Amino acid sequence: MAEHCTNDRQQTFNKPKVELHVHLDGAIRLETILDVAKQRGISLPVDTVQALKALCTVSRPATLTEFLGKFDEYMHVIAGDRKAIKRIAHEFVETKAKEGVAYVEVRYSPHLLANSGVEPIPWKQTEGDITPDEVVRLVNEGLSKGEKDFKIKARSILCCMRHMPSWSMDVVELCKKYRNDGVVAIDLAGDESLNCEAYPGHQRAYEEAVKCGIHRTVHAGEVGPPSVVKEAVDVLKAERIGHGYHTVEDQTLYRRLLDDNMHFEVCPISSKLTGACDPDFTKHPLVRFKKDKAKYSLNTDDPLIFDSTLDKDYETVKKYMGFTEDDFKTMNINAAHASFLPEKEKKDLLNLLYEAYNMVESTGL
Ligand SMILES: [Zn+2]
């Protein structure tokens, strides 16, 4: 599984890292998809890792439709299968441990892995008996077994989907139900052109999240305009912004978010291949974020689809944006601060980083 392992050579930043924005269903191993398809008797158009990779990945900037089409190639293999759901969560933790991640928040839509209690049933599956609730339990089991086996910390974020506002109240209820079992926040993902005014289901779910103290992040300003970011912050009360690149086009909003120490979950390779940003990395909004000392983290988003690793994102910003070892340290400390861990665990994570970065004496950042 060389494409998921970077420990066979020196990593660009060979110290413990924090990753806050990565989709479980966009981080499945190609080998696992082939293996599960075989076990379940599901026929795929290809039967080798190389051919499946060609089918599931984008290698040049794509449209949203092309990008979303990639999930159609394999999600029906994993969704609706108990063993497969638990397995992808467990393997995910192993992959992250090998990438040198000390703490990860992984996100997914429970509905998109279910085959019962979800309307419509996704990926053209026939109805079964795995509900979104059971999906969350299975992922929790896989993650927590992974934590024990691979000695890192993994928490999860449950995603609402912009085109399915009728699922969002379920999502916040699942966040509440499993908040003591590894679920730390709610997210809103999908097509940003579908705003919340037209889809009030999301707003209701986020209001419930605020009321119950569930943490909140929102995909906004990735391909969408700054107004989507504004809505995420003002209406949905987002504490972090997924991507947020286009925030810089509204100077008033951008300044306000800088003042508020808003955290941007930046995903460089993803932002190039989804066409969210100029493919010339030297013109990436992260250059501006860095210059303005914004708060941000570095993340893979959907490493399966981008055929990438966390190290490739680090390598990219080092090569094209001049990131140094010290920048990486500061960035990961900021990521730990922005994590959705309870205060005590956040402090432990910060201490782990300070120690690994030889910053034990200088905690006054
Ligand atoms: Zn994302």
* Main sheet properties: 8 strands, parallel
Secondary-structure-based class equals alpha/beta
What distance lies between the first and last C-alpha atoms, to the nearest angstrom?
38 Å
Order of helices and strands: EHHHHEHEHEHEHEHEHHEHHHH
Instruction: Specify Rg, calculated over alpha carbons.
Output: 19 Å
Strand proportion, as a percent range, falls in 5-15%
Got a strand count? 8
Fraction of helical residues? 40-55%
Query: What ligands are attached or bound here?
Result: zinc ion
Q: Extract low-pLDDT stretches.
A: 1-6
Q: Would you tell me the overall average pLDDT?
A: 94
Number of helical segments?
15
Shape: globular
Major beta sheet, strand line-up: 1-2-3-4-5-6-7-8
Oligomer: single chain
What does this structure look like?
α4 (82-98) packs parallel to α5 (132-150). An 8-stranded parallel β-sheet has the order 1-2-3-4-5-6-7-8. 50% of the residues are buried. Residues 1-6 have low confidence and may be disordered. Helices cover 46% and strands 13% of the residues. It is globular. The chain is an alpha/beta fold and 365 residues long. The protein contains 15 helices and 8 strands. Residues 21, 23, 189, 219, 242, 301 line the site of zinc ion.
Compact summary:
With 365 residues, the chain is of the alpha/beta class. The chain is 46% helix and 13% strand.
Detail the topology: elements first, then pairings.
Elements: E1 17-23, H1 30-40, H2 49-56, H3 64-78, H4 82-98, E2 101-108, H5 132-150, E3 153-161, H6 168-177, E4 183-189, H7 200-212, E5 215-220, H8 226-234, E6 240-243, H9 251-259, E7 263-266, H10 268-273, H11 285-291, E8 295-298, H12 303-306, H13 310-321, H14 325-338, H15 343-356
Parallel strand pairs: 1-2, 2-3, 3-4, 4-5, 5-6, 6-7, 7-8
